[in-house]
Amino acid sequence: MIVLQTLEEFQRIYHAGKKWLRCMEAINNVGNIQPAVFYSVGDSLVYRLSEGDSPGNGLFEGNRRYFDVHYYLAGEETVEYADKCRLLAEVPYKDESDREFFSGAGETLRIRAGNVIICEKHEAYRFQEGAGVRKVILKVTVEETYFLNK
Question: From CA 146, how far away is CA 131, in angstroms rounded?
């Protein structure tokens, strides 16, 4: 998991490439979107505004075709993550949802307002306790700018 302390740090490191520019376009549009509604930028990114605790089923979630970027606007939350190869597969991968679920234990981090996290595709994660969380969740394709199935 990549943890960046500020949005400025994210912009400085990830400033080149269409998908990173689209991430910033989505983040800059946060004032115009409604919570829990998915929006898209091109064919490589979907995003939504999330408010409140991240409901979970206690399992780690992993993806293969997308990676997650979470930009925390307010509050704080604990996230636990681990390499998928160190976890036990519980629910097999489903292409339709691009999700698979695991059990086990990993490392925990406390994420706060202003932080940006990138959940890489070789990892799985689960969110635990949170307080006053408001964040933008971006699902970014692992391909450069298109889907493999198109």
Answer: 36
Read off the tokens for 110.
């406390």
Q: What is the band of 27 on the pLDDT scale with cuts at 50, 70, 90?
A: very high
- CA distance to 100, 105, 127, per residue, from 71 (Å): 23, 24, 14
Instruction: Pick one of 2.60.40.420, 2.60.120.370, 2.40.50.320, 3.40.50.300 as the CATH number of 2-141.
Output: 2.60.120.370
Where would I find the beta strands (DSSP E) of the chain? 2-4, 39-41, 45-51, 60-62, 66-83, 88-94, 99-103, 107-112, 116-119, 123-141
Taking the domains of the chain in order of start, what are their residue ranges? Answer: 2-141
Output Rg (C-alpha) for the chain, integer angstroms.
15
For 90-149, the pLDDT digits (tens) are: 999 999 999 999 999 999 999 999 999 999 999 999 998 888 999 999 999 887 544 344
Q: For residue 101, how many C-alpha atoms fall within 13 Å in the half-sphere facing its CB?
A: 8
Per-residue pLDDT at 16: 83
CB contact at 8 A, 126 and 79: yes
How far apart, in whole angstroms, are the C-alpha atoms of residue 28 and residue 99? 27
